[in-house]
Amino acid sequence: MTATANVNQQLIENISIILKKSLTADATLQDLREHKKAGFEAIFKKDAGFKCSANTFQPYVQEVADNLLHWQEHQDQPTLVTLVKQIEQLFTVLGQFENSHSK
């Protein structure tokens, strides 16, 4: 396997994990909102490196998936750097969220 193929595989695996975690987290957020315990407007601050702004994880996961597709087509370094940073941030925030809301 080439280095590019290895990077691509690792990105896909990480995004797959993030997608699963985000679905669980968004369901928890929905439950918290129904009990008026989640009144924030966005998961990430505007300077976090995402173009979207949302109070659920799914739009951020979609943005990461879109960036992966862009990188797969062009394999440009700036997109890869952005993608890795976004994945790291999602893992961090999802991990913190899971730890604070696990039952």
Q: What does the model show?
A:
It is a single chain. The protein has 103 residues and is an all-alpha fold. Helix content is 72%, strand content 0%. The protein is built from three helices and no strands. The protein has helices at residues 3-34, 58-74, 77-101. Helix 1 runs antiparallel to helix 2, helix 1 (3-34) packs parallel to helix 3 and helix 2 runs antiparallel to helix 3. The longest helix has 32 residues, at 3-34. The protein is elongated, with a radius of gyration of 15 Å. The relative contact order is 0.16.
Short description:
Helices cover 72% and strands 0% of the residues. By secondary structure, it is mostly helical.
Using the CA coordinates, give the radius of gyration.
Answer: 15 Å
Please, what is the average pLDDT? 93
Poorly predicted regions: none
Total DSSP helices: 3
- The SSE string, one letter per element, is HHH
Biggest sheet details:
none
Distance between the termini: 41 Å
Question: What structural class should be given to the helix and strand makeup?
Answer: mainly alpha
Strand content: under 5%
Q: Quick one: overall form?
A: elongated
Oligomer classification = single chain
Count of individual beta strands: 0
Q: Share of helix among residues?
A: over 70%
